[in-house]
Design a protein that fits this description.
This protein has 213 residues and is mainly α. The chain is built from nine helices and no strands. Keywords: DNA-binding, Transcription, Transcription regulation.
């Protein structure tokens, strides 16, 4: 083995990581039809590099999905093991899922890879973990019983994806929105979210007005 071989493998691993991260960002901002050219541009590699690492668009989305599902599954397991109750675990999971808008990536990947069995299996594992957390929170009387898994995941995906044409939301703003979501799931009103970050007070609201009262 020459000295250059480990270096080449390390470079290939770094390229792969950059491509997957760039694909996540591009999917969130441009949707599932984002071009390979845009992903390559964000990753700082050529189109040929992507096609050397992945067999095509479907293969790239397959690996993006597995990467994101792996991260979120690990976070759900850690939250379940370390938090004091199921609702706190859901809150922690939701905050982790907002990192890099991971929760918003998955619906777009699923739509392009419906017949992908390994991806489907990984997805079912994650959904099972989150559903168990919700069931536990409902059984202990902490969460409303009229909520289902789809309610929670759909809201989480929408909160973590920027509106079309807008920049990525400020981290503190997203964290507050997630805390408001979790508080809305409670059986009793009990606001635990932080104060509105100053940066959000000057942003345009959904109907074009500022968010100041």
């Amino acid at each position: 083995m020459t000295m250059t071989e480990p270096r080449l493998r390390a470079d290939a691993c770094r390229n792969r990581e950059r491509i997957l991260a760039a694909a996540c960002e591009a999917l969130v901002e441009h949707g599932p039809e984002v071009s390979i050219e845009e992903i390559a541009r964000r990753a700082g590699v050529g189109n040929a590099t992507i096609y050397r690492r992945f067999c095509g668009r479907h293969d790239l989305l397959h690996h993006v999905g597995l990467e994101v599902l792996g991260v979120l599954t690990e976070e759900a397991e850690r939250a379940r093991a370390e938090e004091v109750d199921a609702l706190s675990a859901l809150r922690r999971f939701a905050h982790r899922a907002s990192n890099r808008s991971l929760a918003a990536v998955l619906p777009m990947v699923y739509g392009q890879t419906a017949d992908d069995e390994p991806l489907h299996a990984a997805r079912e594992r994650l959904l099972g973990l989150v559903k168990n957390l919700m069931t536990s929170a409902q059984t202990t009387g902490m969460m409303r019983n009229d909520l289902c898994l789809g309610d929670f995941l759909t809201a989480l995906a929408k909160l973590t994806r920027p509106l079309p044409g807008s920049p990525r939301p400020v981290v503190d703003t997203v964290r507050r929105q997630i805390d408001l979501l979790i508080d809305g799931l409670r059986t009793q009103r009990c606001c635990t979210c932080p104060e509105r970050p100053a940066s959000s007070r000057t942003h345009a609201g959904p109907v074009g007005s500022t968010t100041d009262d």
